[in-house]
Amino acid sequence: MPQAIEPMGTASTDQTAAALLPHLATAPRRSGLIAMLGRAGNAFWRVPRESNYAKVGLIIYLIFALTAIFADQLVHYEPLEILFADNYQLRRNLPPTTDHWLGTSYSGRDIYSQLVMGTRSALAVGLTAAICVVAIGTLVGLVAGYFGGWIDNLLMRLADIALGIPFLPFVIVLASFMGAAQSNVVLGIALLLWPNSARVIRSQVMSLRERAFIEAARVTGAGKWRILFVHIAPNVLALSFLYTSVAVGWAILTEASVSFLGFGPSDTVSWGYMLQDAYASQALGRGQYNWFIPPGLCIVFVVMAGFFISRGYEEVLFPKLKG
Amino acid sequence: MHDEILLDVKNLSKSFILSRSLGDVINGRHPQVDAVNDINFTLKRGETIGVVGESGCGKTTLGRMLLKLIEPTSGSIDFGGEDISTLDRTDELAFRRRAQLVFQNPFDALNPHFTIRRSIYEPLVNTQVPEEQHDQLVADALVRVQMDRMLHLLDSYPHQLSGGQLQRVVLARALVLKPDFIVADEPVSMLDVSVRAGILNVLREVRDTMGLAAVFISHDLALVRYVCERTITMYMGSVVEDGPTKDVINRPLHPYTRALVQAVPVPNVIQSHEPLALTGNLPDARNPPPGCRFSDRCPLAEDICRQSRPPLRTVEQNRRVACFKVPEMTAGTA
């Protein structure tokens, strides 16, 4: 029931107001979704600009992302292809050569190609799991923090339960019941890792809820969902980013652990799969450092990159913590 | 225009329930604070009332209830003849369009992630005003708060503005809906003295040209004297005095109002009484003194004050006061 408002005022103010109109009309229109995303993007880029930690982390991510995107062009062999020499001998346990940059595995597979392809699955798992974790965490944190009462109680007790479940065993059980697929690993991570971000965002929302500008939104007629998603959510978005970068590392580490323990999918090459393969084939005993060091280093780098970015975020967003 | 009653507050009370300590549970106590206690007053269309009292006397709680931001524990508020506690969503939006709030702290009253433009347009979007009217209404509001020469600020964010500019934005946001009632909660207390006069003049002009009814919540009698026709004094949740501002400040009846008037260094206030020194602090709101709540600090208190609560009664034309001692005082000092 849109209701018109009668203009009301003295002649002189009306005249001045009329003179303003063209300025308002030609000025850029008030923001919509695109502007909001733009601001979020600005906040996102501000961090690497201002912090060297974040810069390094972002560069590492960028290198891995490019590797994952162009993996098909970068590999020399199919990563799971069993390679034979011309004399029909298995090309097993070869040291690094120009043909096999990182040598070959016990079952005659090209390690370099596996490493490159592993980037793709690592990033796929890491990013989807991180996005799921933070999406659930942000939503739960917003709702619990804003509505409080029994909703808050219910959601936070769920969070307590999720935090109480041993993490890796749960993911393994889930993977063995529902099938060893990467999507199940992602599901397990999403189900158990959201409470961390949810709790932090909830506390942030609880303090925002009491701020005067939220009261201003109420007094100007904003409904509760509008207040939550339009007025409060942009103020916790930075925290969500922070938790995304931490969650990426966690997810990759978990996927690697699950694969290393042999519960990962056998048709997809991942760094954890490589480590498991190397371990089971006693690469360590044979001193095949070219086999297990590279995937280990890759995991370390990606997790470290996530840590660097979150560290950079912390410096920029909460400068008081620097001490 | 001063005849029609816009706001009718009847027996309004608000108690906040406090969390119980172990001792409270054992003793079966349910501690609560009566922030606002049985308040009655009416506001006519276009009238401005100042509500004064020291911190914690319930004036902010009262203001929030008038705007339906806090639900009262008991009592009713009729706005334009309708009880605001029973509004449905449609009627509530209509109410929101007519009743607005000006905040104390302009640095906290604007969303840090919104541009100034967005903050000013937001009320129009929220209350579903047709979009073709938005620019016109915003232009009117900007002129009213004298921001028509500050259009370049519209695309800034709040942290880029000064306190005085922010308070103009807060005012513009409150006025953009052309409300007929505003609550101004300490509208200038956070501002530098140098910009106060500017904001106060805007408030006065708005009051005069828009025929706005307003409740000014303040501890500053100078502000109240400058913009309000009527003044209500509150002490510990209750109205202790109500009357035309001129009379209340020049010739306060209630001993608490007298103390307030004399505590504020206002030039040109004719102080016809001996200074009335108050002793002690505000009593614990959980255990208010029996009888008159002011009795433990009042230099004039007698036994009756400590035993029963003085009702708010009309003592002169348009003046109400809650004190047993008033007839004697007026006889003695008038």
UniProtKB/TrEMBL annotation, chain A:
This is Peptide/nickel transport system permease protein. Its main location: membrane. It comes from the Bacteria. GO terms for molecular function: dipeptide transmembrane transporter activity. The chain crosses the membrane at residues 53-71, 122-147, 167-194, 228-253, 291-310. SUPFAM superfamilies: MetI-like. Gene3D superfamilies: MetI-like. GO terms for biological process: protein transport. It is a multi-pass membrane protein. It is found in: Cell membrane.
Automatic annotation (TrEMBL), chain B:
Its main location: membrane. PROSITE patterns: ABC_TRANSPORTER_1, ABC_TRANSPORTER_2. Keywords: ATP-binding, Nucleotide-binding, Transport. GO terms for biological process: peptide transport; transmembrane transport. SMART domains: AAA. GO terms for cellular component: plasma membrane. It holds the Pfam family oligo_HPY. One of its GO terms (molecular function) is ATP hydrolysis activity. It is found in: Cell inner membrane. InterPro entries: AAA+_ATPase, ABC_transp_ATP-bind, ABC_transporter-like_ATP-bd, ABC_transporter-like_CS, Oligopep_ABC_C, P-loop_NTPase. It is a peripheral membrane protein. Signal peptide: none annotated. Residues 7-261 form the ABC transporter domain. PANTHER family: ABC TRANSPORTER, ATP-BINDING PROTEIN, TRANSPORT ATP-BINDING PROTEIN. This is Peptide/nickel transport system ATP-binding protein. It comes from Pontivivens marinum.
